[in-house]
Design a protein that fits this description.
There is one protein chain. The chain is an alpha/beta fold and 216 residues long. It folds into two domains: 98 residues, Periplasmic binding protein-like II (D-Maltodextrin-Binding Protein, domain 2, 3-Layer(aba) Sandwich); 102 residues, D-Maltodextrin-Binding Protein, domain 2 (3-Layer(aba) Sandwich). 36% of the residues lie in helices and 23% in strands. The longest helix has 11 residues. The radius of gyration is 18 Å and the shape is elongated. It starts with a helix and ends in a 10-residue tail after the last helix.
């Protein structure tokens, strides 16, 4: 998003202030302050819930692409994790997300593989957002997490991706939507249109987002 904002600012001269945070905290702030123009998050369900609360404008939501579920380990993959089944091994420490865009992804992946009962005992840490989930890797508190392929672009020097078989992968859309309290709906629409333009989508593609139909 930061790259896309910079490109839009150069193109239009508009100054955009980005506030990053957990979806629930951002929505709480929007509801309390009745301020904000655009919300973007890595899961459509966040926007569904916000719409139901009257915080986002229905009909002004677009997808910026999809991210693919992967396993992530520390750089160099010191425990030699190569497949999902390796998370069942004694002594392997696993981290999962209980909030944000990755909420429930471990359940979806492991249920497809029939490995819930074998992997659950090795889940030793929970995190409530992407950043805190990756922190578990950086702080050597876990050996692997369930994350997104795009994380490697954000933390290229401190993580390693272990791909999952196609039949086990989970895909989620990153959405962008106008906030009910926007002070300039036309400008908000222009920014959303830019994000889903070829230039905007190219920025997301370069950072790991997918835009082609996902084949089974």
């Amino acid at each position: 998003m930061q790259e896309a904002i910079a490109a839009f600012e150069r193109k239009t001269g508009t100054v955009i202030r980005l506030t990053a945070g957990k979806p629930e905290n951002l929505l709480k702030s929007i509801a309390l302050r009745k301020q904000g123009d655009i919300l973007t998050s890595g899961a459509e369900y966040v926007h569904d819930e916000a719409e139901d609360r009257g915080l986002l404008i229905k009909g002004i939501r677009r997808s910026l692409g999809y991210r693919r579920s992967v396993l992530l380990t520390q750089e160099g993959n010191p425990k030699g994790i190569r497949r999902l089944e390796d998370l069942c091994e004694p002594g392997i420490r696993v981290g999962t997300a209980t909030g944000g865009c990755l909420k429930g992804v471990w359940d979806d992946v492991c249920s497809k593989a029939g490995l819930i009962e074998r992997i659950r005992p090795n889940i030793v840490k929970h995190a409530d957002a992407c950043g805190s989930l990756m922190a578990l890797i950086h702080q050597d508190k876990v050996d692997a997490i369930f994350g997104w392929n795009a994380f490697k672009n954000i933390w290229p020097d401190t993580s390693e991706v272990v791909e999952l078989p196609r039949e086990l992968q989970v895909f989620r859309s990153t959405a962008v939507q106008a906030v009910t309290y926007t002070k300039d709906l036309e400008l908000s629409r222009r920014f959303i249109d830019f994000l889903v333009s070829p230039e905007g989508l190219r920025i997301y593609s370069e950072n790991g987002w997918l835009h082609e139909p996902v084949s089974v």
